[in-house]
Amino acid sequence: DASANRIAAGEVVERPSSVVKELVENAMDAGATRIDIAIADGGKTLIRVTDDGQGIPAEELPLALSRHATSKTDGADLFNIRYLGFRGEALPSIGSVARLTITSRVQGAEAHSLHVSGGQIGAVKPAALTRGTVVEVRDLFHATPARLKFLRSDRAEVQAINDMVKRLAMAAPEIGMTLRDVSGGGEGRVTFSVERQGGDLISVRDARLAAIIGRDFVQNAVTVEAERDGVRVSGLAGLPTYSRGAAVAQFFFINGRPVRDKLLIGALRGAYADFLSRDRHPAVALFIDCPPERVDVNVHPAKAEVRFREPGVVRGLIISALKHALAEAGH
Ligand code: ADP
Ligand code: MG
Fold first, then answer.
1. Contact present, 276 and 282 (Cβ < 8 Å)
2. How far apart are the CA of 331 and the centre of ligand 2, in A?
3. pLDDT per position as a tens digit, 129-188
4. Which CATH number covers residue 221?
5. Where is the DNA mismatch repair protein S5 domain (predicted)?
6. Host domain of residue 296
7. Contact residues for 78 (Cβ-Cβ < 8 A; gap 6+)
8. How much is the pTM?
């Protein structure tokens, strides 16, 4: 089982930012309203994610570290759309290639913690915590020097973590999030922070996009809103005048998950082809929602690739939705 975990880890845990993604998604699935992330040395020596979610009961802590144990399926349905997780692979994988400590408290019970290192699971012990869950990952890949060697500079890994946290924060505008670099010790330095937002979904989302991409983007964008054959696209598309020299502000989300996908980028290019030369790139944040059986978002667990059942429908929908929105704005 330990070696199976290490093989799975090769898929799930590519670099520190993939650990951050898995831990933040778990916090989101737990209904957190605040998620605080602390990292040191590019996430190589420390990644700590603290949430105020529902917590894990003491007796279920060992289960959280067992392969293929997930609390997120109902048995009949392999994939529950309400949750980001479903494989039950992330924590056991991380625990096989790092030192992992989970401390958690459910309402009305005492806090407990459990440590695993190199796949060796310790005993559940009483701990101190007011609420929610803290997952601490130390010394990623300490037991697999070959993997450690493939990590980039601390600076590059921090950048990748920052990008990941930004995307996750755009996908969940109702959750407050901070990222701190504690490499120097103490409280560290806040490198990213967004407040929890209230209000209706669209205004909350736009406020979050303004906070992350920039107020100028939201002010120079049109609202996109369309649906076809059960696939819905909504969000903001930058006016052709608000374009960039590089594709740095193109964000796509499918069923609440940040994704990067050639088909979506191609559709975007098609929609703006009449307005922009090849060296200018539109800024967009597009949220696609569709029944889970129409898209496979886990082609590769660590990569944000997707596979649509009917790519033509999605491509056509995005191009027409964007063209329509731009035409309404006089383009
Ligand atoms: P998955 O998310 O696919 O279920 P994980 O390995 O990521 O698998 O997590 C295993 C289990 O541990 C989850 O199903 C959940 O029950 C529990 N868990 C993990 N992180 C948290 C958290 N932050 N809050 C509450 N429960 C958690
Ligand atoms: Mg998970």
1. yes
2. 43
3. 999 999 999 999 987 888 888 899 999 999 999 999 999 999 999 999 999 999 988 889
4. 3.30.230.10
5. 209-327
6. 201-328
7. 86
8. 0.93
